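A quick word before the example. In earlier lectures we treated sequence and structure as two separate objects. From today on, think of them as two lines of the same record. Here is RNase H type-1 domain-containing protein written that way.
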Amino acid sequence: MVCPWCGKEEETLIHALKDCPKAQDILTLGGLDNRLLERDYSYCIDWIEDIMRTLDIKVVVDFFTTLWNSWNNKNKFIFRGQDEDAKTVWERAKTLCHDFRIHNLVNTPMLPITPTCKKCEKPPCSFVKINFDAIVANEKMGYGVIVRDADGFMLGGSGGFKEAVMDIEWAKLMAFEESVKVVGELNILKVIFESDCASLVNMIKKKGRDFTILGHCVDKACMKLDNFILVEVRWANRSCNKVADLICNFALKSSCSWNFSMYYPKEIHDSVMFDAIN
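And the structure line, produced from the sequence above:
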């Protein structure tokens, strides 16, 4: 099949994008170096790789935008009979680059960047925060739980593994059950649970309205939350869950389980502080 634009050569990908006179006119208006247009290439991918090695990365983005508009113009010519001149195609590509601020880092972006929390936040006063996580690999699952007080100090935690094949949501649910157990052993009454699994957090918040098997198990696990005075379940960014993730990865790789605690009753704390002052 000959090229519908020039009608001189067989239409290959390298010819349609580079060797065709109409395509070369569009690329020349875009400022592409003659060396990259006149050199012979057997395959289109070789030409693309040569361009990416030669041009600056920001310019490469504009090049692909121009290339896409050139290809789109050819499709219009084949299917609709519309043929625009090279300058019109280039101006459209230039406008597209400008409107979406593809390479201009000086101008204010059209879509403002939404700030997100990238670190663990302390819970409100008198509350304790529990981060839990789980991982599934090699027909095993590992879970990790970390407990912090209102000052950000670690009170305890748990880590472990189980040899079972399961979906990640089931593994996260097991980690949640383990976190409830850990907090119960520490006799804490005001708690905030955090997880980076949005689906599990939504199920917990909508308990009683999910009629799936997983939803039923979530409702059963949430019954133990009645033992606390105040309970809140939140979604947290994965970067806020690094310690729990580290524990569950270590438990999975080491195939071990353990509980650790640094919590002691308020009476002991007051006695220690009194001896220290005196």
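Notice the following. Strands lie at 128-137, 140-148, 154-162, 190-195, 230-235, 258-261. We will return to this example when we discuss secondary structure assignment.
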